[in-house]
Amino acid sequence: MTRLYEACAGNLEDFPERKGLRNFTWTNEAINDWEEIWHDLWRLGYKWEWQNSDRYARRYGEVFNLYAVHNDAVRLDMAIPLPGIVTFYEIRESLLINPGDDQRLDHAIGAVDRWLKKHYTQREPLFTEDKLCMRE
Q1: I want to staple 55 with a disulfide (CB 3.0 to 4.6 A). Which of 21, 46, 79, 82 is the partner?
Q2: Residue 8: other Cβ atoms inside 10 A
Q3: Beta bridge partners of 68
């Protein structure tokens, strides 16, 4: 332990009210469920703008092989982009403010909400209407 930690931590007892934090990890089940949402988004006119170090998956039988983009975005047809968790909230917000009246928008919003509830450990929204950092 560092001096700073010992000086600032005080009593080192467990604090049950603390929130646990961790990175999101893609599982085969999460990718499989996301693949359906991604196809719906594609049909609704969304596209992925690839950048170096973006993560993507390719189906290999029942599992997915995971890769990162490295100057090869031209060859990524039929690849499944694997967005970060904040991007899911951006996707959801984009669907909510979409002025179209296509019922597929409602289904896509519901699918994203169900995906977040099932696969993401953070049960509370990262952003609320008054604190949405991506809104202009």
Answers
A1: 82
A2: 8
A3: 55
Task: Say how far apart CA 14 and CA 45 lie, in whole Å.
Answer: 49
127, 134 in Cβ contact below 8 A? yes
Domain coordinates in residue numbering, the chain: 16-131
User: What percentage of the chain has pLDDT greater than the value 70?
Assistant: 73
Number of H helices, E strands in the chain: 4, 3
Q: Which amino acid is at 96?
A: L
Instruction: Give Cβ neighbours of residue 61 (< 8 Å, ≥ 6 apart).
Output: none
Place of tokens 């951006």: 90
pLDDT-derived band at 132 (thresholds 50, 70, 90) equals very low
